[in-house]
């Protein structure tokens, strides 16, 4: 183990065996480091690259900081591989080296107007000053790759990383005023890194939650997606709600806290929702953004549909339909793609369809409609419905699970008999026109829908029965 020079918590330098020994410096970083050293400049691995290396997390991309100005960076790296300069106005030059994306940024000493989050870009000459302007102490560590592997940690990031504590290099008020997006990033790191926020950070997030309105919707969406796809989204979401940030970026979630559900099992739907999210994650093969959004939003229609009945019951009739509309509105406002909006809304709309099956009310036709309405979302719907059972009554939970097992078995049986995943009428549009002797037009569409409904109700009709049914329908239209 080599000896390394470490600067920690404001101490200029000591010689010790320490953090640098824990970081395997990639070959790409060594090559770039040699080039910058030859040009007379510093080059440091920095930020999430150093943090993740210390945590033993794989990172395909490398982030660097340097005292070289952007034009000098371009000159130094121009022969290494494909280069991009889309961020050069902010001092960042990228180069693709051995399948790695390497981003190199000049030391920064930015000033913020505290109105937008766009800084007035200013270059600096001090590594420590550059680290001071970063979001959290665990992202404010650097490792030199231009000779001696000097580990620089002026704000105690290593100790905070070891404790799993999220703090800011400057005061959190200053940090969040410069860039309010950092408040959402704090919640994201709670989810992805399983860290906790320091009390002063939580207090600043609560006091400054309204500042998040300065951030573009696209950046909010990106942080929410990363949070939801983390290993512990419940903790990140709870921080958003407790700090008041959710009131501004996802108000439907805190609105669930005071709504009792129709089963009388939960004093608030918020706790139920977080449990459903946890249970949906347990059923995943890999992180699934659509399923996680559906679990989070599946009951958001309840506050708007809550009714107190004369017998003391609380009902939420049609909350799935209301919730589906609300999910569309929220996800569109967050600028999610049409596919994600449609899929999440459909899962919210269908999540209650299963209830009633356990009473034996479903015909084969109802099962077919369940499969067809879910379409390619059926595997996700299975997970969502199973996750929605959070009752502590073991007998009731077992009965619901058994009923859904039976439904899945019936779906499997029907699949063996029929092409459930691609149900179509027995006659297509051309056949309908030939049988009825009509041209293309609205009547062909209506006939197609009628034959599809017959197919759903009775299963495959075959050509002859389908022709008879079509002629009977056409006669009734006259």
Please state the average pLDDT score. 87
- Order of strands, main sheet, comes to 2-1-11-10-3-4-7-6-5
- The beta-strand count equals 15
Structural class: alpha+beta
**How many individual helices?**
22
Main pleated sheet: 9 strands, mixed
User: Share of helix among residues?
Assistant: 40-55%
Q: DSSP strand (E) fraction? A: 5-15%
Span between N and C termini? 91 Å
What does the model show?
With 478 residues, this protein is an alpha+beta fold. It is built from 22 helices and 15 strands. The protein has a 9-stranded mixed β-sheet. A two-stranded antiparallel sheet has the order 8-9. Strands 12-13 form a two-stranded parallel sheet. It is elongated, with a radius of gyration of 29 Å. 39% of the residues are buried.
Question: Which characteristics define this entry?
Answer:
22 helices; 15 strands; two-stranded antiparallel ribbon; 478 residues; alpha+beta; 9-stranded mixed β-sheet; single chain
SSE topology sketch:
Elements: E1 4-8, E2 14-16, H1 27-38, E3 44-46, H2 48-55, E4 62-66, H3 70-77, E5 83-84, E6 92-97, E7 100-106, E8 111-112, E9 119-120, H4 127-132, E10 142-144, E11 151-153, H5 157-163, E12 165-166, H6 172-178, H7 181-193, E13 196-197, H8 199-207, H9 217-228, H10 233-243, H11 246-249, H12 269-283, H13 289-297, H14 302-305, E14 307-308, E15 314-315, H15 319-333, H16 338-350, H17 364-374, H18 378-387, H19 394-417, H20 429-436, H21 442-458, H22 463-477
Helix pairs in contact: 7-9, 7-10, 12-13, 12-18, 13-16, 13-18, 15-16, 17-19, 21-22
């Amino acid at each position: 183990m080599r000896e390394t020079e470490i600067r920690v918590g404001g101490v200029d330098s000591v010689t010790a065996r320490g953090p640098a020994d824990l970081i395997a410096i990639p070959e790409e970083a060594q090559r770039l480091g040699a080039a910058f050293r030859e040009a007379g400049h510093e080059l440091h691995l920095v930020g999430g690259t150093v943090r993740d290396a210390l945590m033993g997390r794989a990172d395909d991309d490398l982030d660097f900081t340097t005292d070289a100005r952007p034009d000098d960076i371009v000159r130094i790296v121009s022969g290494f591989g494909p280069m991009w300069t889309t961020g050069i106005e902010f001092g960042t030059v990228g180069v693709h080296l051995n399948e790695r994306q390497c981003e190199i940024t000049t030391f920064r000493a930015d000033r913020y107007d505290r109105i937008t989050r766009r800084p007035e870009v200013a270059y600096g000459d001090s590594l420590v000053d550059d680290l001071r302007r970063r979001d959290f102490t665990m992202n404010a560590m650097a490792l030199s790759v231009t000779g001696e592997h000097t580990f620089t940690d002026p704000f105690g990031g290593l100790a905070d990383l070891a404790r799993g504590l999220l703090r800011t290099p400057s005061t959190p008020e200053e940090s969040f005023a410069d860039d309010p997006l950092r408040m959402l990033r704090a919640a994201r790191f709670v989810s992805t890194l399983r860290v906790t926020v320091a009390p002063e950070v939580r207090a600043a997030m609560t006091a400054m939650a309204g500042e998040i309105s300065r951030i573009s919707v696209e950046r909010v969406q990106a942080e929410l997606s990363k949070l939801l796809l983390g290993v512990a989204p419940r903790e990140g979401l709870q921080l958003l709600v407790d700090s008041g940030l959710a009131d501004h970026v996802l108000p439907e979630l805190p609105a669930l806290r005071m709504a009792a559900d129709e089963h009388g099992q939960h004093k608030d739907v918020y706790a139920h929702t977080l449990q459903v999210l946890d249970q949906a994650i347990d059923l995943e093969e890999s992180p699934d953004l659509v399923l996680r959004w559906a679990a989070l939003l599946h009951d958001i229609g309840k506050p708007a549909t809550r009714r107190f009945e004369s017998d003391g019951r609380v009902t939420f009739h049609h909350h799935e339909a209301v919730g589906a509309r609300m999910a569309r509105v929220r996800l569109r406002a967050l600028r999610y793609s049409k596919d994600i909006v449609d899929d999440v809304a459909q899962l919210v709309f269908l999540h209650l369809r299963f209830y009633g099956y356990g009473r034996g009310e479903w015909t084969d036709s109802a099962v077919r409609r369940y499969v067809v309405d879910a379409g390619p979302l059926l595997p996700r719907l299975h997970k969502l419905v199973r996750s929605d059972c959070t009752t502590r009554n073991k007998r009731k939970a077992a009965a619901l699970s058994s009923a859904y097992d039976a439904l899945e078995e019936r779906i499997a049986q029907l699949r063996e008999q029929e092409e459930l995943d691609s149900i179509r009428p027995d006659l297509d549009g051309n056949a309908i026109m030939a049988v009825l002797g009509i041209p293309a037009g609205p009547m062909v569409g209506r006939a197609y829908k009628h034959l599809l409904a017959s197919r759903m109700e009775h299963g495959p009709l075959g050509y002859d029965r389908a022709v008879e049914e079509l002629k009977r329908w056409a006669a009734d239209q006259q």
